[in-house]
Specification:
The complex is a heterodimer of chains A (759) and B (154). Chain A has 759 residues and is α+β, with helices and mostly antiparallel strands. Helices cover 28% and strands 25% of the residues of chain A. The chains are: A alpha+beta (759), B alpha+beta (154).
Chain lengths: 759, 154
C-alpha cells in the first residue's frame, strides 16, 4: 500500500478512540499502590531571604506524612539545571520569584496536603526585586545568582556565555561580512524596537509526576517531553545510576515545550525520598503558570537597504527576560537572534542576544524557541521598510527572499525550500478566498532552524504472528507522533497498520532519544524506526536464505510472511523451520546519530522549518478590537505523513500564535504576577479564531525524513503576529510595535495614524 | 505600589513636627490601623491592620519599626503585617520629610510604598490596588484635618 492509498484509508492514529472514550491513560491518571499526594508551598515574595520555616503544625496534622524543605538537603549537592546548575531542588535560604517552591507536603490525600500548606510558617526577609530584563542588566540591579555554575555539552552542545556578578546568563554574538561597509553604502537605515510579552504554554494538562524513590532506584510516571533528560538530571542529583532510573511517560495532555527538558521531576522525586513512599504531585493549572513560560523580549533591529529595495545588512540585538532560573533560556536567546534574520539574503549580519535573570517565572522552551519574538520584529520591520520605500510588501519580500540553496547564515545549512514560491502560493490561496480584500491584508514569512539534535534510536520487534511492536521514547502529546511512526514501520515492513503497535514510552525498554520537541520526531525518530525495520528485514531474509535457500535479494517481506523463489511462506512456518517451534521474534534496532549517513545529518539545521502567513483583519476602529477574518498558513513540509494531524498541527500553531498576537501577556506589578490564573489570562476562544482558515501544505518530497518529509508543527505560530500588525498598517497606516495588539493599543495607533494623515 | 503626597502647610515646621513625633497618633490616621501600642518608644510599635478588600476581611497583626527619625525634618517608618487566613503579607514604607519654606510655612512630603504579597496579591491585584489608593486618599484627608487644612478636593 503506498502512502497516498494509506492516507485515504484507515485512520493511522489509534489514540483518538481511546481519548474520546476516556479510556486513554494520561500522566495525571496514573495511580500507584500506596501512593501519597503532594502539594507545593510557593513563595509569595518576588525576592526574599528565608529566615526560618516552621513545619511543626503541618506535621502534627492527621494524614500528613512528610514535609520537604531546604533543611532536608543539607550535605547534598542539590542544584540542577540544563545550562547552569542554578536551581535548588527546593528553596534553601532564598526565593527568587513568586511561585518558587519553598516546601512540599506529602499526605494521604490532596485535600490534607493542601490544608497542611497553610500550617507552614515561613518568615521571609524581603530583598529588592527586578522583573524587567533591561532593568536587570543595569549595574545596580538586584543580583539573583551570585555564582554561575556552568554545565558543558549537557542538554545542548557547548555552554552558555554568562557574566558572573551580573544577571546576564547568556550573551551570544555573531557577525559575518563587512557590517560597517554595508551600512555605510546604504541609502536608508531603519532602526526599530519591538517587544514581545511573557506568555504561558497553556497545555490543558498541568505538570504532573508520580515518583517512587526506593533504595534500589527511582521510578517516575511523568508528563515529560524528555524522559532521558529527566533520568540524567536525577542521576546526577541523587547519585543513582542511569540504569536504575526508570521514566515512564503515558499520554500527555499538551506540552508545547513547557514540559520539555526537566521541570518538577526532581522535586517530586525528593518528596518521595523524604516520605519513603510513592508520591503524586499534580499541579493546579495556575501553578503550571508559575512553573514555565516563554521568554519575553525586547528586539532592536537596524537594517540597511538601497532605495531600490535591496536588503544590505542587518544588526539584531535581543534582550530576553529569562526569569529566575536559566533552564534552556541560553538556547532560546541564540535562536531568537538567528531567527530574526528571516529567510533573506544579506551582505553582512551582526547578531547579539542576551538572556537575563529576573524575579519572574523561569523562562523555558516554547513552540519554536525564540522564534515568535524574532519573527514579530523582523516581519514588522520588513513591512515598515516596504511602506517607507513605497514598494508593495509582498514584492519587497520577493526581491530579497533567499532562493532554495541560498545561505542566510554562513554556518547553517542553506535554505532547503522554495520560499518565494511558497509566498506566491499563499497569496494566491488568499486571493481565491471568498471575500478576499487586499486592503485589509497583512503578510509575513518565517524560517527557523529547529534544534533537532540528530540523536534518536528505536527498537522494532516482529513477532511470530506477524504483529509488530515499535518501541521508542517519542512522546505522544497530541501531535500524532505514534501514528506517524507506526505508519513508517508499516510501510518499511510492508505490514498492514492494524498489525503495527506502539509501546508506551518507558526508558527501561525504549532506547535513548534526545527529546520530543523542535519538530524533530517525524524526521529523526522516523529515520531510526526505518533503520530498525531494515534491520528486521535483513534478519528475515537471512533466516529465509538459511531455511529456504536462494539469495537474500530474492526475498521480500509481505503481509504476515515472506515471498521468495518458492513462493509465499508464512512467518510462523519460517519460525517453525528455524526454531522447531511456533515461537520467537526478530528484534531490530535503528540508530540515528550525527555520524549516521556519512555525517549528512550532522549539519544544523537538519531541515528548515518555514512558514508563510497571509491574513485579513476586521477592525472595529471605534474600540480597536481586531478580528482575523481570513487566514492562509503555508509551509513546505516535504511530505504529508498524516493530513488530518498535519493540518491540526498547523492550525493549532497559528491559533496559539493568535493568542500572543491579540490577548496573551502575563502581567507583573510590584513583582507579583497578577493574572496567573485561567480567569484573568485569556487565550483565543473558538469564536475568536478566523472564520476562514486555510492550510496549504506544500510537498516538495525532498526533506531528510521518511518519504522526503520535514518536521512541522512549530512553523505556523511564527508569522501570525506580524501578519495582524501588518494588516493594521495596510488598513489604517497604524503601526503597533508591542504585543499583544490589545484594543487600547490598536485604538491609539489608529488615532495617531489619522492625526498624522490629517496634517 | 508607590504613593506620594506633597503639600505646603501654612504653619512653621516646629508646630507640625509633634504630630509625627507621636507615632501612635500618626498611625491612627491610617485607615484600618488599630490598637497602636508602644513597645519601645520611638523605635517599635505593634498594631492591627483591619481591612475589607473585595470579599476578603483581613486582620493582620503588624509591627511598626521607626527606621529613621531626625527631629524636626524626617521620619521613616516600616510596617509589616501578615494575615493568617488569606496568607497575605503587607509591607509599608513611610517616608516623611518636612522642609521649611521661605514664608515660614512647611513643605510636607509623604512617600509611601506598599507591597502586598500572597494569595490576595495574585488573585486580586487590581482590587488591592484600588483599595490602597482609597486608603492613601483617606490618610491624606485625615492628615489634612489633623493639620487643620482644607480638603484637597475643596
Amino acid at each position: 500500500m503506498d502512502r497516498a492509498t494509506q492516507q485515504q484509508g484507515a485512520e493511522i492514529r489509534d489514540d483518538y478512540l481511546e481519548k474520546v472514550t476516556g479510556a486513554a491513560v494520561y500522566a495525571s491518571d496514573v495511580t500507584v499502590p500506596g501512593m501519597l499526594h503532594g502539594r507545593v508551598l510557593r513563595s509569595p515574595m518576588p525576592h526574599a531571604k528565608i529566615r526560618s520555616i516552621d513545619t511543626s503544625r503541618a506535621l502534627a496534622m492527621p494524614g500528613v506524612v512528610a514535609v520537604l524543605t531546604g533543611a532536608d538537603l543539607a550535605g547534598m549537592s542539590h542544584h540542577w539545571g540544563l545550562y547552569l546548575r542554578d536551581r535548588p531542588l527546593i528553596a534553601v535560604d532564598r526565593v527568587r520569584y513568586v511561585g518558587d517552591p519553598v516546601a512540599a507536603v506529602a499526605a494521604v490525600d490532596e485535600f490534607t496536603a493542601e490544608e497542611a500548606l497553610d500550617a507552614i510558617d515561613v518568615d521571609y526577609e524581603p530583598l529588592p526585586h527586578v522583573t524587567d530584563a533591561e532593568e536587570a542588566m543595569l549595574p545596580d540591579a538586584p543580583l539573583l545568582h551570585e555564582h554561575h555554575d556552568k554545565l558543558r555539552d549537557f542538554y545542548f552542545r557547548g555552554e552558555t556565555r554568562s557574566t558572573e556578578g551580573s544577571n546576564v546568563f547568556q550573551h551570544y554574538e555573531y557577525a559575518q561580512g563587512d557590517v560597517d561597509a554595508a551600512f555605510a553604502k546604504a541609502d536608508r537605515v531603519f532602526e526599530d524596537r519591538f517587544t514581545f510579552p511573557i506568555v504561558f504554554h497553556y497545555a490543558m494538562e498541568p505538570h504532573v509526576v508520580t515518583a517512587d524513590y526506593r533504595d534500589d532506584g527511582i521510578t517516575l510516571w511523568s508528563g515529560s517531553q524528555s524522559p532521558t533528560t529527566v533520568q540524567k538530571v536525577l542521576s546526577q542529583l541523587f547519585g543513582v545510576p542511569l540504569a536504575r532510573i526508570r521514566v515512564i511517560v503515558p499520554y500527555i495532555g499538551g506540552g508545547f515545550g513547557g514540559k520539555s527538558s526537566v521541570k518538577i521531576d526532581p522535586l517530586v522525586a525528593a518528596l518521595s525520598w523524604k516520605a519513603k513512599a510513592p508520591v503524586r504531585v499534580c499541579l493546579a493549572i495556575n501553578e503550571s503558570m508559575l512553573t514555565a513560560r516563554r521568554l519575553s523580549a525586547a528586539i532592536y533591529l537596524k537594517t540597511a537597504v538601497t532605495n531600490a529595495g535591496r536588503l544590505l545588512a542587518k544588526s539584531v540585538r535581543v534582550v530576553m527576560n529569562g526569569g529566575a532560573y536559566a533552564d534552556t533560556g541560553p538556547a532560546v536567546a541564540v535562536k531568537a537572534a538567528i531567527r530574526a534574520i528571516g529567510p533573506y539574503r544579506f551582505e553582512a549580519l551582526k547578531l547579539e542576544s542576551y538572556a537575563v535573570y529576573t524575579n519572574t517565572v523561569p523562562g523555558a522552551a516554547f513552540r519554536s524557541i525564540g522564534g515568535p519574538p524574532a519573527v514579530w520584529a523582523t516581519e514588522s520591520q520588513m513591512d515598515i521598510i516596504a511602506r517607507e520605500l513605497a514598494i508593495d510588501p509582498v514584492d519587497f519580500r520577493l526581491r530579497n527572499l533567499a532562493a532554495k540553496g541560498d545561505s542566510v547564515k554562513a554556518d547553517l545549512r542553506p535554505i532547503d525550500v522554495d520560499m518565494p514560491g511558497m509566498l506566491r502560493a499563499a497569496v494566491g490561496a488568499m486571493d481565491a478566498e471568498p471575500g478576499a480584500n487586499a486592503k485589509v491584508r497583512g503578510v509575513a514569512v518565517a524560517a527557523s532552524d529547529p534544534a533537532n539534535i540528530p540523536i534518536a534510536s528505536a527498537i522494532v520487534r516482529l513477532k511470530v504472528d506477524g504483529s509488530v511492536l515499535v518501541i521508542t521514547n517519542s512522546i505522544e502529546m497530541g501531535q500524532g507522533v505514534h501514528g506517524v511512526l507506526r505508519s513508517v514501520a508499516s510501510q518499511a515492513l510492508a505490514q498492514p497498520m492494524d498489525r503495527v503497535h506502539f509501546a508506551r514510552p518507558d526508558t527501561d525498554s525504549a532506547p535513548y532519544d534526545w527529546a520530543t520537541g523542535a519538530s524533530r520526531s517525524t524526521v529523526t525518530m522516523g529515520l531510526a524506526v526505518e533503520e530498525a525495520c531494515l534491520d528486521v528485514l535483513k534478519q528475515v531474509r537471512e533466516l529465509a536464505v538459511e531455511m529456504l535457500g536462494g539469495e537474500m535479494s530474492a526475498y521480500a517481506l509481505v503481509d504476515n510472511g515472506v515471498t521468495g523463489p518458492s513462493g509465499f511462506t508464512a512467518l510462523r512456518d519460517l519460525f517453525i523451520r528455524a526454531y522447531g517451534m511456533d515461537s520467537g521474534e526478530l528484534v531490530g534496532i535503528g540508530r540515528i546519530t550525527p555520524r549516521s549517513r556519512n555525517g549528512a545529518l550532522a549539519k544544523s539545521p537538519l531541515f528548515w522549518e518555514t512558514a508563510v502567513g497571509v491574513g485579513e483583519v476586521d477592525v472595529d476602529a471605534e474600540t480597536g478590537q481586531v478580528r482575523v477574518a481570513r487566514y492562509v498558513s503555508a509551509a513546505d513540509v516535504g511530505r504529508v505523513m498524516n493530513r488530518k494531524a498535519a493540518e491540526g498541527q498547523d492550525e493549532g500553531a497559528a491559533i496559539q500564535g493568535l493568542g500572543h498576537s491579540l490577548f496573551e501577556e502575563l502581567v507583573y506589578e510590584d513583582g507579583q504576577p497578577i493574572n496567573a490564573s485561567l480567569i484573568d489570562y485569556h487565550v483565543p476562544a473558538i469564536d475568536e479564531t478566523p472564520p476562514r482558515f486555510h492550510t496549504l501544505l506544500i510537498e516538495s518530497g525532498d526533506g531528510p525524513g521518511p518519504g522526503g518529509s520535514r518536521g512541522m508543527g512549530e512553523g505556523a505560530i511564527l508569522p501570525v503576529a506580524p501578519v495582524v500588525a501588518n494588516a493594521l498598517a495596510t488598513a489604517y497606516g497604524a503601526r503597533v510595535t508591542d504585543l499583544p495588539l490589545t484594543p487600547e493599543r490598536v485604538w491609539r495607533a489608529i488615532r495617531e495614524a489619522k492625526a498624522k494623515a490629517a496634517k | 505600589m508607590n504613593f506620594r503626597m506633597d503639600l505646603t502647610v501654612p504653619a512653621p515646621r516646629d508646630s507640625i513636627w509633634p504630630i509625627f513625633f507621636d507615632v501612635a497618633r500618626i498611625a491612627s490616621l491610617i485607615p484600618g490601623c488599630e490598637q497602636v501600642t508602644e513597645i519601645e518608644p520611638l523605635e517599635l510599635y505593634s498594631a492591627v491592620m483591619k481591612q475589607k478588600i473585595g470579599p476578603f476581611k483581613m486582620e493582620a497583626p503588624a509591627e511598626v519599626r521607626v527606621e529613621e527619625m531626625t527631629e524636626p525634618s524626617r521620619l521613616k517608618a516600616h510596617a509589616r503585617g501578615k494575615d493568617k487566613v488569606t496568607g497575605t503579607t503587607m509591607d509599608v514604607m513611610l517616608d516623611v520629610t518636612l522642609e521649611e519654606t521661605d514664608d515660614d510655612g512647611t513643605q510636607l512630603v509623604v512617600d509611601a510604598s506598599l507591597t502586598v504579597a500572597g494569595r490576595l496579591a495574585s488573585l486580586g491585584f487590581s482590587v488591592v490596588k484600588k483599595k490602597a489608593e482609597e486608603m492613601f486618599a483617606e490618610f491624606e484627608r485625615r492628615l489634612r484635618a489633623e493639620l487643620g487644612m482644607p480638603d484637597a478636593a475643596a
